Amino acid sequence: MSVRELVVLGTASQVPTRHRNHNGYLLRWDGEGILFDPGEGTQRQMLRAGVAAHDLHRICVTHFHGDHSLGLAGVIQRINLDRVPHEISAHYPRSGQKFFDRLRYATAYRETAPLTEAPVDADGDLASSKTYTLQARKLSHPVESYGYRLVEPDGRRMLPKRLAAHGISGADVGRIQRAGALGGVALDDVSEVRRGQRFAFVMDTRLCDGVYALAQGCDLLVIESTFLDEDVRLAVDHGHLTAGQAATVARDAGVRHLVLTHFSQRYSEPAEFERQARAAGFEGELTVAHDLQRVPVPKRR
After folding, report:
1. Annotation marks residue 37 as catalytic
2. What is the pTM of this model?
3. Which of 67, 204, 219, 291 is an active site residue?
4. What is the pLDDT of residue 269?
5. Which of 41, 101, 162, 164 could in theory staple to 190 by disulfide, Cβ–Cβ 3.0 to 4.6 A?
6. Burial 83-113, CB ≥16 within 10 A → b, else e
7. Share of the chain above pLDDT 90, in %
8. Helix 243-253 vs helix 271-279: angle between axes, to the nearest 10 degrees?
């Protein structure tokens, strides 16, 4: 059975705390694993969460600040140590190529696994598979930063009552799905569009067009909320979001499940992030993330 879930490996911003590791997030999506922003300590957090190097198929780095990328060296070396047989693609801002190179070859090791570098330098589609298209949108941060979005292609949902009304059953159901029509009955007459699922990952950024584009219509949105609303000036100055801002984006974008993360070490009470997110008017599912948590992608409507 296919699994679609977020595995939270770390939730701290800038520096780890006693209870929060640096960033790290694994999205399991139908047999593929996409690792986002592996900060320092990600390799150990993967071990604790039961995530193996063989589970990885893509690595997506939003930007090259240390809390989002220092774990790359260890993760890449582990991929090679474990001799992962399949190709792994790495996406990151092209402007940070020198940082990626330094992290990839931070120390001596034997390269045994295929790692394809696929840097990002513009908004748009990055890759496609049968079950998703991976997209990028530029964000607003002191260094170049991109957010990522997965979009599943729309499908069809067959409607049993309409099928029965037209006398279509058994193997004929498959035939009309493949051909688009059967005996004068169109596929649209017995089915409806099944909207594909959407996931977005938004890290360090101020409010900008890219944030809204990434969040639009998401079933699961993972978004930074480094600061509480009373520190909004700090958020703007340093290129971050507050809990209320993140929740407002989710509210306006029609997000079903909002995951707040990337918390400043200045705050010790996570419940306040939830309170401010609700005060902003977000009424969907809400998770204030903690390390080693698993968050399922909501079931299709």
Report:
1. no
2. 0.93
3. 67
4. 85
5. 162
6. ebeeebbbbbbeebeebbeebbeeeeeeeeb
7. 94
8. 50
